[in-house]
Amino acid sequence: MQSSKASRLRNSSLGDRVFDICNIIFMVCLMIVTMYPFVNMIAVSFNDANDAVRGGIYLWPRMWTLNNYKYIFGESDIYHATLISLLRTVIGTAVSVFCTAMLAFTVSRQEFVLRKFVTLFFVITMYFSGGLIPGYLLIRNLGLTDSFWVYIVPGVIGVFNMIIIRSFIEGLPEGILESARIDGAGEFTTFIRVVLPLTIPAMATVSLFVAVGQWNSWFDVFLYNSSNIKLSTLQYELMKILQTTNTSATAGAVEAYQSAENAVRVTPTSLRATMTIIASVPILMVYPFLQRYFVQGMTVGGVKG
């Protein structure tokens, strides 16, 4: 193995070596630019809030402390809100991806007479909407306000995600679907037992998009469930904590907040960094499990002879 690598290096031209070196330098710079903001947020979140006001914190905390995290997790509603966020993310992602995939399979079929009209109808909704007030009135008339299902039902179909999955399905060999029909499978059986397993890469990609949107969403909580603390989400609770801190702080001064056990000093800057880490870690933990599907081929089966 080493000898083959050495022979390739000897046989490569000067231009190839320069190109490889430039690529390496570019990728290293890109990695630094991408990672630095997140590493800096970690450093600020673990740094003393009073000291963080001075600035000058880059990759490592100057004065280590857990007070920022103690303050946020000291809120009594934060744990229940985290549970609601997890539920809406898991349920909302599963329902949305499944329903979107069914629609994508339907409009991908050449025998579906209205496929062009239905596709155009959905695409138009990507460019035009009814607006905030008509949308709120619709949700209220449907009886979804003050309900957990207001997080799920409005996002059941994602048009952009439908286009991604439809394009993926259209790339599948038609012979696979024909084989299922010859064996007596109906459309739904074909979708469940043939199409879904073959579209796992596209489903994984779309699932990540939907999950991130569900996890980060807070405005729908503000609109429809702000009066019901039992349906509050993590993002909405973090937003309220930051809003309270911004209101209480004056000209960037450090304010003291009394927790259940002792006084904890926080600032809007330290809280923003801490909230960013808390909100990002769950998604970062999920991504490695989905990443392997991104590089898979479009089909994993063969045409039955």
UniProtKB/TrEMBL annotation:
Residues annotated as transmembrane: 21-39, 78-105, 117-136, 148-169, 190-212, 271-290
Source organism, top-level taxon: Bacteria
Main subcellular localisation: membrane
Signal peptide stretch: none
The UniProt record lists the keyword Transmembrane helix: yes
GO BP of this protein: transmembrane transport
Protein name per Swiss-Prot or TrEMBL: Sugar ABC transporter permease
